[in-house]
Amino acid sequence: VQLVESGGGLVQTGGSLNLACVADANTLGRYVMGWSRQRPGKQREMVASITPGSRTTYADFAKGRFVIYRDNDKAILHLQMNRLGPEDTAMYYCYYNTGIDNYWGEGTQVTVSS
Question: pLDDT under 70 in the chain at which residues?
Answer without folding.
Answer: none
